[in-house]
Write a structure and sequence with these properties.
The complex is a heterodimer of chains A (about 220) and B (about 190).
Chain A: H1 3-35, H2 40-44, E1 53-55, E2 73-81, E3 86-92, E4 99-105, E5 110-115, E6 123-129, H3 131-139, H4 143-148, E7 152-155, E8 160-168, H5 175-183, E9 186-190, H6 194-199, E10 207-208, E11 214-215
Parallel strand pairs in A: 6-7
Antiparallel strand pairs in A: 1-2, 2-8, 3-6, 3-9, 4-5, 4-8, 10-11
Chain B: H1 3-27, E1 35-37, E2 40-42, H2 53-62, E3 72-77, E4 90-95, E5 101-109, E6 124-126, E7 139-143, E8 150-153, E9 161-169, E10 185-191
Parallel strand pairs in B: 7-8
Antiparallel strand pairs in B: 1-2, 2-3, 3-9, 4-7, 4-10, 5-6, 5-9
Classes of the chains: A alpha+beta (about 220), B alpha+beta (about 190).
Chain lengths: ~220, ~190
């Protein structure tokens, strides 16, 4: 092997190493949202069950759940797993304080955000669904009903994630009030299945469910 | 040396190099894509669904929860208005304009986002609790030792960051350019 050959071989190996490094780098960046062990979902998931509203403890030095958390907000969250059913979030934001909601997937993508100003007189009536679940809900409504529905239906791009509810605390003494605003909301897992809807009994009219909610469509249990 | 062993070694070296590069890049703070205005840095895309892969990876790694666009905007300052790193041994005065929003909050954190423990249990101010002058203007004094007026304790051991969050703001970058004069100035005073 001549000197030129050796240099060429070494250069080829270097090129190979750089190529592999670039590939690994791109792969690591793209997989990070799915594999990171300490992301926001991993921090929140152990604190609550699916479809349960959990109030986060106040952000204090040494016991922060989330880095950079704002101590001037009270926060709560609901985990969802759409394989187990859609998430139904409802309640009334009485009090007039600033409340924001953000809908996030497990991998950290924000797919919806809103404030209390976007509600109708403070009433929240929100579904987080897969496309199939939304179709199942819509399949059993006629056009009039769809037009009159006041609820918000959001299709999530992933099966798992969480809804984060933040209530602003203008003064430290107002924290209890802001936390009460969050606690006044509730989350529930509501199974919606197309096949059951299709094979189910004849279409029901507006009815009262055990949750006390007016429904204008058929719900599968 | 066996050719397969060489290949394996090259692959191993490449993987290590790739992971090291990823690690180094993700430690770069703050986020990748953003706008600077004076001492403040804002990543408006971090609240939307079309976030770039690097910023997403960075958020996943730190566990931070960025404000959704509809919720508000978050500004981070690591330096004062002259471009020097914020240092807990110095006194700073924060004053000036805050873009229109329903509420805003200012928080002092250690690098990495941890709140700094202090006897006053004061980690920041909100727009509602701040003491203002008759014309509506305000000044926040950031220093280790207690000051009259709006005193924010600089309780971190060395450097610190400031986070200004505008909740339910009308500020939108898609139509207007962000000007440093629209945001508070951070002016350094005496140092210990």
């Amino acid at each position: 092997m001549s000197a030129v050959d050796r240099i060429l071989t070494a250069a080829l190996y270097m090129l190979g190493i750089v190529f592999v490094a670039g590939f690994v780098h791109i792969l690591a960046i793209l997989l990070m949202p799915y594999l990171a062990p300490n992301d926001s979902f991993a921090r929140l998931a152990p604190l609550g069950k699916i479809g349960e509203l959990v109030l986060l403890p106040r952000a204090e030095p040494g016991q922060q759940m989330i880095p950079f958390a704002d101590p001037a907000v009270a926060q709560g969250f609901c985990l969802f797993d759409l394989d187990k059913g859609s998430l139904y979030l409802h309640g009334n934001l009485a009090g007039g304080g600033l409340v924001t909601l953000s809908f996030r997937t497990r991998s950290g993508r924000i797919f919806y955000g809103m404030t209390d100003k976007a509600t109708q007189h403070g009433t929240l009536d929100i579904w987080v669904l897969t496309i199939a679940q939304r179709t199942a809900l819509e399949a059993d409504e006629d056009e009039d009903e769809q037009g009159s529905l006041r609820e918000l239906r959001i299709v999530a791009p992933e099966k798992t994630g969480f809804v984060l509810i933040s209530a602003f605390v203008p003064f430290p003494s107002a924290r209890a009030q802001s936390e009460a605003q969050i606690a006044a909301l509730s989350c529930a897992v509501e199974p919606v299945e197309q096949s059951e809807l299709r094979d189910g009994p004849a279409k029901t009219s507006v009815g009262q469910l055990s949750t006390g909610r007016q429904v204008s469509y058929l719900r599968a249990n | 040396l066996n050719i397969f062993l060489r290949f394996a070694l090259a692959g191993f070296a490449g993987t290590l190099l790739g992971l090291a590069a990823t690690n180094a890049l993700l430690q770069k703070s703050p986020a990748f894509a953003g706008i600077r205005a004076g001492p403040w840095f804002v990543a408006p895309k971090s609240g939307s669904a079309d976030l770039d892969p690097y910023s997403r990876a960075q958020l996943a790694r730190t566990g931070e929860i960025a404000l959704a666009h509809a919720e508000g905007l978050s500004f981070l300052a690591r330096n004062d208005s002259d471009g020097h790193r914020l240092d807990a041994h110095c006194t700073y005065v924060l004053s000036g304009q805050v873009p229109e929003s329903r509420y805003w909050s200012l928080t002092l954190v250690a690098p990495g986002g941890a709140l700094a423990d202090n006897p006053a249990r004061r980690y920041g101010f909100t727009s509602a609790e701040i003491v203002r002058a008759a014309d509506g203007s305000f000044e926040i004094t950031i220093s280790r030792n207690a000051r009259p007026g709006n005193w924010l304790p600089a309780a971190t051991p060395q450097t610190f960051d400031l986070v200004l969050r505008l909740y339910d703001t009308l500020l939108d970058f898609s139509t207007s350019k962000l000007d440093a004069s629209a945001l508070p100035r951070i002016v350094k005073g005496a140092c210990e």
